[in-house]
Design a protein that fits this description.
Blueprint lengths: L7 H22 L3 H9 L7 H4 L3 H16 L4 E3 L14 E3 L6 E7 L4 H5 L1 H11 L5 H6 L4 E7 L3 E8 L11 E4 L6 H10 L7 H16 L7
Parallel strand pairs: 3-4
Antiparallel strand pairs: 1-2, 2-3, 4-5, 5-6
Helix pairs in contact: 1-4, 1-8, 1-9, 2-8
């Protein structure tokens, strides 16, 4: 089946396979294959810089977060200084290619941090979702929605706030774990390490399309 036969959710779900494989390759290149397996299988395992020869947050963002967001159809701007006046409130990523009525941001934490204690969603909720940080967008640019994604690369949460009413819209609220709700990354890990898999990719693609891309894909957000 070629990409021309896919619906849009399945098309983006297929692209996730390459993002997952790139993450596994990066771990293997840094002699961190065993640590990758530990992180996948145990949410209490922490990632430290010595494991990957890089700051854990940077490694997470560069090796998996950026790739997954790209597969979901987003264009990214890192550390967007123009969004807020305070550097303390500066988000990690701005989503560039949303509707003219939307401003989108991403808060990232190191691998397993969101999975274990919801660290990124707390950063997203306060200051972005609960206060008036983006009120100037409503006034000056006639923005209507704030799209916020929180992730540690494995666990993902999305919220959409109506800037006119202050309501966080329940129809766009979603939580999903790429390692606990899906076998996709596990599949790519075992195929690289052992040249065999416990699952086939097509069922993983279908599951990701239905339960992840349908909620987090750029094409499924308010237009």
């Amino acid at each position: 089946m070629g990409f021309g036969d896919f619906d849009e959710d399945r098309y983006h779900a297929e692209k996730l396979q390459m993002a997952f494989r790139q993450f596994v390759w990066e771990c293997l290149e840094r002699d961190a294959g065993a640590k990758c397996r530990e992180l996948l299988n145990n949410e209490s395992i922490d990632l430290e810089g010595g494991h990957v020869q890089q700051l854990p947050e940077e490694f997470t963002q560069q090796t998996i977060v950026d790739g997954v967001l790209d597969a979901l159809g987003y264009e990214l701007q890192h550390h967007p200084a123009e969004l807020v006046k305070s550097e303390v409130k500066q988000p990690d990523i701005k989503l560039q290619n949303l509707s003219d009525r939307c401003v989108g941001i991403v808060e990232c934490k190191r691998l397993n941090k969101e999975r274990s204690d919801d660290a990124a969603i707390e950063n997203l909720r306060d200051p972005y979702l609960q206060d008036n940080t983006f009120a100037h967008y409503k006034k000056e640019l006639e923005m209507q929605y704030l799209v916020g994604i929180a992730t540690d690369g494995f666990d993902w949460q999305i919220r959409v706030k109506n800037l006119q009413t202050g309501e966080v819209l329940p129809e766009y609220r979603a939580n999903y774990s790429l390692v606990d709700d899906s076998n996709g990354i596990h599949h790519c890990y075992y195929s690289e390490i052992h040249e065999e898999t416990k699952t086939a990719w097509p069922p993983n693609r279908e599951e990701l399309a239905e339960n992840f891309v349908s909620k987090f894909g750029a094409h499924n957000l308010p237009s």
